[in-house]
Specification:
With 330 residues, the protein is α/β, with parallel strands linked by helices. 53% of the residues lie in helices and 7% in strands. It contains 14 helices and five strands. The chain has a five-stranded parallel beta sheet, sandwiched between helices. α2 (41-50) runs parallel beside α3 (67-76) and α6 (159-174) packs across α12. It starts with 9 loop residues before the first strand and ends in an 11-residue tail after the last helix.
């Protein structure tokens, strides 16, 4: 490979047999890949923690940590869970295949290794990694845009991060599945991204909005949904963005939904959103104490606005949380 040519990808080869490492390294480097090698599972995990890896080729039978164990740790860590893992094995039993799948392996390669099969599987998994990297990059841009909108108003400092934490904590208490908790974490950050279309004179107005200004402001959930709609990974986020300003009695916006027609995840976000607004300084009033905030929430439950059961659950969540935990605003 020319010194000026960028490598196609960075691949980690982990095998306790030096001959095997050298063989795999030579075949991959000849195709233009950058290759790092590890002689056991412990060393493989160290490299994964220090460098960006596009694909991990792990021999199953290694000392200290087997390929199964290393794969499981890769898939359990948020920083590496999207790194494809190709398990290289001489084991042929169905139980070993099942164990590999359960550990999170993306593909298998049987010994003795055929060069054509190796390169085909590597190309496929590197392409998969490129797709996931692109998706993560787009999500990152969305989060940056959302935080730039938040930064325009000094009263909403860290509002998005608090909502993400509050929402996930409430979802945990309710026993919601992981995919809904992930959606709530994302929605906590991007729920108001549609405000990018709202003029600053309206967004930062210290007093009440006039009818036309309110009409413009109330378009932001629809705009936010439209901005995020192309992202397939945001499939469960979109209803939260669109419906977090609905009210149980149908007087909310943009669709005037009633009761359980409002998605549960949207009701979770609106509950923590209202609470955070009440306990945060605003241009027209100072932050309210925790107890007063929940008293107001319950008054609004009685008016038919919010889900009373969620308000109760959220108060329970906050009761046992230390003030310095990062969950409760101090």
């Amino acid at each position: 490979m020319s010194k000026n040519r960028m490598p196609l990808a960075t691949i980690l080869v982990a095998d306790d047999q030096e001959d095997n490492r050298e063989l795999l390294t030579e075949m991959l480097r000849h195709q233009g890949y950058r290759v790092l090698s590890a002689e056991d599972g412990k060393q493989a995990l160290k490299i994964l923690g220090e460098q960006h890896i596009d694909l991990a080729l792990l021999d199953v039978m290694m000392p200290h940590s087997s390929g199964f164990d290393v794969c499981q740790q890769i898939k359990a860590a948020p920083e590496t869970r999207l790194t494809p893992v190709l398990l290289v094995t001489g084991l042929a039993s169905q139980d070993d295949r099942v164990r590999g799948i359960e550990s999170g392996a993306d593909d298998f390669l049987s010994k003795p290794i055929r060069k054509e099969e190796l390169l085909a599987r590597v190309r496929s998994l590197v392409r998969l990694k490129r797709y996931t990297d692109e998706l993560e990059s787009v999500e990152t841009v969305m989060f940056i845009l959302a935080r730039s909108i938040e930064a325009k108003d000094p009263c909403t400092h860290e509002h998005c991060d608090r909502l993400a934490r509050y929402s996930v904590a409430l979802a945990d208490r309710l026993g919601l599945p992981d995919e809904q908790r992930v959606a709530l974490r994302r929605a906590g950050i991007v729920h108001d991204i549609g405000k990018v279309a709202v003029p600053e004179r309206i967004l930062l107005k210290p007093g009440p909005l006039d009818p036309e200004e309110r009409r413009i402001m109330e378009t932001h959930p629809v705009v936010g949904e439209r901005i995020c709609a192309p992202l397939k990974t945001f499939r469960l986020v979109l209803p939260i963005i669109r419906h977090h300003h609905e009210k149980m009695n149908g007087t909310g916006y943009p669709d005037g939904l009633h009761y359980d027609r409002i998605p549960l995840t949207a009701r979770i976000l609106q509950t923590v959103d209202i609470y955070d607004a009440l306990v945060t300084d605003r241009p027209y009033r100072k932050a309210l104490p925790h107890e007063r905030a929940f008293a107001i929430l319950r008054e609004e439950v009685d008016r038919g606005w919010w889900d009373g059961a969620l308000v109760d659950k959220f108060e329970d969540v906050l009761k046992g949380v230390p003030q310095k935990s990062g969950l409760v605003k101090t």
